Structures are given as structure tokens and as C-alpha cells.
Amino acid sequence: MLYQVVIPAAGQGKRMKAGMNKLLIELQHQPVIIHTLKVFEQDDDCRGIIMVVNEAERPLFVELLKKFGIKKVISIVSGGIERQHSVYNGLQAVKEGEIVLIHDGARPFIRLEKIHELVKEAQEHGAAIPAVPMKDTVKKVRNGMAEETVERSSLWAVQTPQAFRVSLVLEAHKRAQEEGYIGTDDASLVERMGKKVKIVEGDYRNIKLTTPDDLLFAEAILSLKEAR
Ligand code: CTP
Ligand code: MG
Q1: CA of 13 to the centre of ligand 2 (A)
Q2: Which residues pair with 133 in a beta bridge?
Q3: To test the ligand 1 pocket, which listed residue (5, 76, 83, 91) has its Cβ within 8 A of the most ligand atoms?
Q4: 9 lines ligand 1 (CB under 6 A)
Q5: Cβ count within 10 A of residue 60
Q6: DSSP 36
Q7: ipTM metric
Q8: Cα distance between the two ends of the chain
Q9: DSSP 8-state assignment for residue 191
Q10: Residue 32's closest CA among 84, 86, 88, 107?
Q11: pLDDT at residue 225, rounded to an integer
Q12: Fewer CB in 10 Å around end: N or C, the chain?
């Protein structure tokens, strides 16, 4: 089943504190964004990649695509202030087709089997997202004091890629845009339309590189991959 993928890469990476877009940090001689792009480059089911970048960084990304032989990027569009604005812009460049994935440039360890499972479930349910059960106990905290312990068994941490029928996610983003609503992921925009979102069990290794510690985990995951 063929799909297109939108990859938002227009963030600033503030929490990584690297003084630059974290997607340009090199892991084993390759920028993070290239690790991510290569997964889709190597997937025969991927019809095309739409990248979302900061205008100022466009030449840099174009150069990287050339250097690392990435050929499936069919369009590069400008990012917005929030991730949601960036994704909205990316979705405008999606060609006609059934399924689109939205995947953070900062998640380089997504596996092909999981992508294919998500595409299949999105085809059936309209929307499908990967999530893993929370390992830690989660509390609501106010002014440094525990206020409430949230029931853990119903809590799942959500990842990307999030997979959707093209028409559904376009409509969800259009509505959110019109109503000035900002959600923390794309599926939440579909949920607020009253539509169901299928949860697919994710992989704890599909981490998002967010803070400097995540680079240590990333190196470990990469060295395991090499050993295989
Ligand atoms: N992103 C984007 N446009 C934005 C903000 C984020 O395209 N305005 C992208 C990032 O490049 C990243 C993904 O969305 O690939 C997930 O966002 P996040 O992990 O929050 O990255 P940053 O926003 O770059 O990091 P921070 O929040 O620490 O500044
Ligand atoms: Mg961010």
C-alpha cells in the first residue's frame, strides 16, 4: 500500500541546547535528518517525501539531500511558528492519494514494519498512531507539590509516524487552523472532530531526540543496529 510522508524539520531544537537545529547534529557521521529520511528513501511503498524546513536553512537541507543521495523528496515547503503550522504547510503539498504519514524529523529510529502496520490500520480506520504504555507513574504537580496521581494503566505515550487518510487529516488541520486551535499532535485534531484514532503498539526505541541525554540513547541504539 503506497503512501506519502510529511516530515516537519523546521524547529529550533531549543531543548537540545546545541545552538543549532538539532536535526543537523551528526550521529555516526550522518545528520539526524538523514537517518530519518533514509528509512523512507529505502521503502518501496513510499511514493514521496514532503519536507518542511525553515527558509533560512533550505540551502543547507538541499545540499544534504544531494550529498547523501536522497531522491524521494518531491517538495520542500516553509515551516511555521508551531509544529502544527509546519505540518499544515506540508499537507498542502501532498498529492492525491489515499494515505499520508506525518513523521518528526527528530525520530530517526522508526522501523519499516511499524510504518507498514500504521499504513494498513489507517486505511482501515482513517487514522492510526503508534504509542507505548507509560513506564513511570505520572502525577499532576502544582507549586512543587503532588496534587493527584493519574491512573497509569490507561496512559500511553504517543509517537510518530501518525498515519491518516489524506482527506481526513486535511479537514482536521483546516478546521483547527480556522478555529485557532493548537493541539500537541496531529491525531488530536482528528479526535476533536469526533473521529476514532487507532492505537498501534509502538517501539520504546522510536525515541524523539529532544534533550542532550537522548543523544546518548541514540548512539547506543545505533551501535546495536551496527552489531546486527
Ligand atoms: N518542527 C517544525 N516546525 C516547528 C516546530 C517543530 O517543523 N515550528 C519539527 C521539528 O523540527 C521536529 C518535530 O517538529 O522534527 C518535533 O518537534 P520538537 O521535537 O519539539 O523539535 P523542536 O521544536 O525543534 O525542539 P524544541 O521544542 O526543543 O525547540
Ligand atoms: Mg518544539
Answers
A1: 7
A2: 156
A3: 83
A4: yes
A5: 16
A6: H
A7: 0.99
A8: 28
A9: H
A10: 107
A11: 81
A12: C
- What cell does 210 get? 529532544
Rounded distance between C-alpha atoms, residue 174 and residue 72, angstroms: 26
With a 6 Å cutoff on the Cβ, whether 52 touches ligand 1 is: yes
pLDDT of the residue at 228: 66
Residues of the chain with pLDDT under 70: 228
Residue linked to cell 541525554: 213
How far is the C-alpha of 172 from the C-alpha of 195, rounded, in Å? 10
Cell of 216: 546518548
Looking at residue 226, what is its pLDDT?
76
C-beta of residue 127 within 8 angstroms of C-beta of residue 168: yes
Residues in contact with 136: Cβ distance below 8 Å, sequence separation at least 6, in sequence order: none
Give me the helices (H) in 69-185, please. 83-91, 112-125, 166-179
* Ligand 1 closest atom vs CA 14: 29
Distance CA 187, CA 173 (A): 10
